[in-house]
Amino acid sequence: MTLHEGRTYVVTGADSGIGALTASTLRRRGARVISCGLGPDVDVRADLGDDAGRDQLVDGILRLAPGGIDGLALVAGVATASTEAVRVNYFGTLAVLAGLRTSLRKKPTPRVVVVSSAASLSAGDDAVIRACLRGDEAAAVATAEQLLSSGRGGVLYRSSKIALNRWVRQSATGEDWAGTGVVLNVIAPGIVENDTVRETLSADPPQDSARDRVLSTALPQPLGFPGPVQAIADAISWMISEENSFMAGQIVFVDGGADATLRSDKPYADGVRYGPVATSRMLFWALKARMGPWRRS
Questions:
Q1: Residue 77 — φ and ψ, nearest 5°?
Q2: Domain 8-192+226-268 - what CATH class?
Q3: Which are the contacts of 201, defined by CB distance < 8 A and separation ≥ 6?
Q4: Which of 14, 53, 175, 288 is the most buried (most CB within 10 A)?
Q5: Model-level pTM?
Q6: Averaged over 211-238, what is the pLDDT?
Q7: Cβ atoms within 10 Å, residue 166
Q8: Per-domain residue ranges of the chain
Q9: Mind listing the pLDDT tens digit for each residue in 186-195?
Q10: Which InterPro entries match (predicted)?
Q11: How many CB atoms are located within 10 Å of the residue 178 CB?
């Protein structure tokens, strides 16, 4: 019997990138996977940008898995500088998590992984983060609109991921989660070789807004830039397996060494801020990536 055989998992964002590879990886290892996304080939199609779409996704999953789900990989996210980055990445993710909590509790070893990003190492917008953490979607979106109008929309993606990290740290050990046996953790990938990164770094000249997003969150990744998507799928696969039995509320950076490089042994405070040397180094690696995947030998 394989590690995941007989288990039922839900993967959001399963129509592309990390989500698609996670779903296929779990299936290859014996799991039943309920795939969710916006594409035509998923089991449940729904947009997490509003309440109707969130309810539609939860209702669809509950119909397909009336006996409960063993694991949930919340991969769906928006990386563009838009209010959707806040609506989907934070509020959509938590709405699905809340809607499926009872379904998870029907199983003996339920596991949840929230996909964040190593971009959360960079400083975010405090007003957006605070609004997210108090559950005020209207205020978070209004602040996001102000940032967009002032040309600071690039901070929204990482702000939504910082808020997710903080929510999980605050909640995972509480009665609703660890207290009822639901293991909840975060994975924070570095920059990996998906379609968005390939398009951004291969454009000639690079797309300005996309380039700025990459460089504003770009990470020194000693193990390679961009990194392999399969490494992220494999980590998620283990984190939602029953073998992951004693880890709760952790933010696991699978980032080619970026977190350790940037923070070393320093505690996290207000996010990493880059000086001229670090910025030059990231620009060098981004330019190297435009010439193809790069690995240190």
A1: -165, 165
A2: alpha beta
A3: 214, 226, 286, 289, 290
A4: 14
A5: 0.86
A6: 79
A7: 17
A8: 8-192+226-268
A9: 999 999 986 5
A10: NAD(P)-bd_dom_sf, SDR_fam
A11: 15
The confidence score (pLDDT) of residue 224 equals: 84
Q: What are the distances in angstroms from CA 92 to CA 13, 43, 52, 164?
A: 12, 18, 11, 11
Compute and round to an integer the Cα radius of gyration of the chain: 18
Please write the tens of the pLDDT for every residue from 35-87. Answer: 999 999 999 999 999 999 999 999 999 999 999 999 999 999 999 999 999 99
Distance from the Cα of residue 209 to its chain's centroid: 21
Q: What's the CA angle centered on 170, arms 167 and 174, to 5 degrees?
A: 120
Residue with tokens 């898995």: 65
